[in-house]
Design goal:
Two copies of one chain form a homodimer. Chain A has 478 residues and is of the alpha/beta class. Helices cover 39% and strands 22% of the residues of chain A. In chain A, strands 1, 2, 3, 4, 5, 14, 15, 16 and 17 form a nine-stranded mixed beta sheet that branches. In chain A, helix 5 (191-204) packs parallel to helix 6 and helix 15 crosses helix 16. The first copy, chain A, is globular, with a radius of gyration of 22 Å. Chain A starts with a helix and ends in a 13-residue tail after the last helix.
Chain lengths: 478, 478
């Protein structure tokens, strides 16, 4: 073990011991063993994702993982401890994990149940009435199914925004993924509900051995009033967390805000202190040039999650102005949004669509190169969740995805970056390691009993999709 | 066997016996047995795709295939001949095959080798120079790899447009797929080359037990002069086949044609007799309202193949005007184009992107419903290739794809149509039957040795991607 890795591990343990002082200790996987476990991925190729420039592949490497960190990456054939767990990586490409920076994970319960409708009808006639049927148990089951789908697809971390946040957190903790969880809040729910989200955010931030973090989760400037936004922002600053909010989701919302209030949704976030607190903005397709100065001022604490599949399906032009935001220094990342719109939680598809729709929107085939796209999905995603540098390197986090580019749809592989961006399907993911723990090995999920989860979910379907007159969680009229 | 099915089989055999009189008899799979083989898919659900209205699913059916036709579809539990081959379809959904209506199958050899460049550089700096390296053996190997990928993805028929057409035809014949093969022709190749394509088209049309048909394949109005187009059209009429051609690929080509010649590419097709011969137009994104009257006049013999992934990647707006063309009565179908642009031959992705980009382009989330999209891909695809009604029904062709919607990315299935359009990946395809022959069973390819094909292809990569100064098949300057 290198000195620097040992220092990092010691520091990590110190953090964990500190976290023991909060409750939910059952999810703090602090080891009582004298030495951390060792895991070796043998003979894989390794994708490197630098901060700038081209991504590249180093061939035939051994990745040695000690505890939850990468100890070394070196040419294959290194000698390892006989106690080490060995994963055969030959013929596979190791990549950092994908990060889904905006979803509502339990909405996998509703995939396919709201097709071919515009956004207002999608909310008011389909999704919000169906969501009024949800119980905490439904959400736990849905979140677990979502975790299974994400692990199977090589997503190692996600930013969630939903109700029954405790149930989601427990599902994430048991699944072994990383997540930033924002409890959804509408002002229509009242101050007590807001206080409950604050309490959740404080209690769960750093839980599950640090794999779970939290954000405040006001739904949107059009469903949360300014006083509540200001309170949310103040609480986020107090807790040292950020705000995850839908804002400027589309240009109609921006126009509506300008008409009703004379300011854009981004200006609302500024006036209420949300920008100052640090924010993960979902969608941002309605961000306009007059917002740019504000965003530039807050660029280091602002990320925007772009989810192009739902903009296509809802026929909502334009897309997130990705290039402009990056020019401002604002972090941009990819997400799926909930599966009631996106149908799957496939982040390969999200990243591919982001690249393609940005090329199309800017009429420039040379933007969003394969390297830039991989970087946005992996480094941009990690930054949006406040995670560290995700690149696979000694001392880095052991969040590793092994993908198989051997299929007929990838061969011959002239360029692994192009294969990752334009050819991947989730079934090409073979093995997934998060925080040093193997969550899927050669397509076998190790932390989730998927047949049981699916059977549980299917039992709930009929009740969940029954639409009851007058019953809805909210009304969409931004 | 019903009388009508027996009549159809007899008619089909008569056709085959007629085809024996041409050469290439080795691909004519005329059975010498007294009775045709029987195949039963037990207990599957069946997707029905009507000419209009909603698609629907009939559950728990047995599909009985006799020879190359569907004999019956009835509630599971029917008694069948002890000699019948049984496929367990429980938990699977049977659908018609997907039809890839525009591709250059051997270009799988170049996937990922020409990324992030605009269309002129894509042709002139990457693809056409690389293609000048191709030998007939390379094309045979590439076509076989493409066939493997298409079978694995549930594509049962495709329209190909490429060089070394004999090699492609042999690969298709051995793989067991259906294909319409158009030998690519540029005027720069001279009259002898044109005559050779005519000879190929005549000789191979109806070969491989009728699974192979042919079209004339002039490349485009900007690479084939009017005299050659007129000759091609005349030969197509003589042979009773159609013309497969790139035309109005993008709006720049239409503008350029108007500027150079005062007429649109579609008007060129009209003046040279190509529209009269019947035509499969690749792309058609540059079709303009002034073309509509001509297209309406030829609507019953015209199809347009739309391949949205490559328009996105090449940043070429607008998309094919799908809704307008359908209003004119022109057939519209989906395709991938070559994998050097599309990366894969995934028709599920093509159909999904077609639906999404049409919603986006028309700013109407209600167009291209899931039923309309499935219909376009399946019925539209079959029509574009001159195949009959592909719906799964007694007397229909035994081109059947069994898909598994049991994965975490599909569950729970509220709507199988939505799952097919918005959630499918090719790995969800379990079993593929074409013309009554099982080409893949439970993911095992039965007609292609994929590892051998991939090894063969990989050996060719370095030579194929070497770009030699001044060596190119053509120059792009439409």
């Amino acid at each position: 073990m290198t000195t620097s890795t040992r220092d990092r591990l010691t520091a990590a343990r110190g953090f964990l011991l500190f976290r023991r002082s909060v409750n939910d200790c059952k999810f703090l996987a602090v080891s009582s063993e004298p030495s951390p476990s060792v895991l070796v991925v043998r003979g894989c190729d390794v994708l490197r994702v630098p901060e700038t420039g081209e991504c590249w592949v180093v061939t035939n490497q051994d990745i040695v993982v000690v505890g939850n960190l990468i100890e070394s990456i070196s040419p294959t054939g290194s000698s390892v401890s006989p106690a080490a767990q060995i994963i055969d990586g030959r013929g596979l490409l190791a990549t950092p994990g994908l990060v889904n920076t905006h979803t509502h994970s339990p909405m996998v319960l509703f995939r396919g149940a709201a097709e071919d409708v515009p956004v207002a009808a999608w909310f008011n006639e389909r999704v919000w009435p169906m969501e009024s049927n949800l119980t905490e148990d439904d959400v736990a089951a849905g979140a677990l199914l979502a975790c299974a789908e994400m692990i199977q697809g090589g997503t190692t971390a996600f930013a969630d925004h939903y109700f029954f946040e405790e149930a989601i957190a427990r599902s994430v903790a048991s699944a072994g993924l990383r997540a930033n969880i924002a409890p959804t809040y509408f002002s229509s729910r009242g101050r007590e509900a807001l206080d409950a989200t604050v309490e959740f955010a404080g209690r769960w931030n750093g839980a599950a051995a640090g794999r779970i973090s939290t954000s405040m989760g006001p739904h949107a400037p059009y469903t949360v009033d300014d006083d509540d936004l200001a309170e949310v922002a103040a609480q986020a600053r107090r807790l040292g967390i950020r705000v995850h909010i839908h804002a400027s989701e589309n240009i109609d919302q921006t126009r509506s805000s300008l008409q009703r209030r004379g300011i854009t949704p981004i200006e609302v976030l500024s006036r209420t202190g949300v920008l100052d607190a640090g924010v993960l903005i979902a969608h941002g397709c309605g961000i306009v040039p007059s917002d740019y100065e504000l965003l530039a001022t807050h660029s280091t604490t602002t990320s925007v999650a772009s989810c192009p599949k739902v903009y296509l399906k809802h026929a909502l032009a334009p897309m997130t102005p990705v290039g402009d935001l990056q020019q401002l220094g604002v972090g941009v990342a990819a997400g799926t949004d909930g599966a009631a719109g996106h149908n799957t939680l496939d982040m390969w598809e999200s990243m591919r669509l982001l690249a393609m729709t940005q090329k199309y929107q800017t009429t420039d085939a040379m933007v969003m190169t394969t390297s830039d796209t991989v970087r946005l999905a992996m480094r941009g995603g990690a930054a949006a969740l406040g995670l560290g540098d995700p690149d696979l390197r000694p001392g880095g986090p052991a969040d590793i995805v092994l993908v198989d580019l051997g299929g007929s749809h990838h061969q011959p592989v002239h360029d692994a970056r192009a294969a990752l961006v334009y050819g991947m399907q989730t079934s090409d993911v073979r093995t997934v390691i998060v925080d040093g723990q193997v969550l899927m090995r050669d397509r076998q999920l190790l932390t989730i009993d998927l047949p049981e989860v699916i059977a549980d979910v299917v039992d709930r379907v009929k009740r969940l999709t029954t639409i009851r007159e007058g019953s809805s969680v909210q009304f969409y009229n931004p």
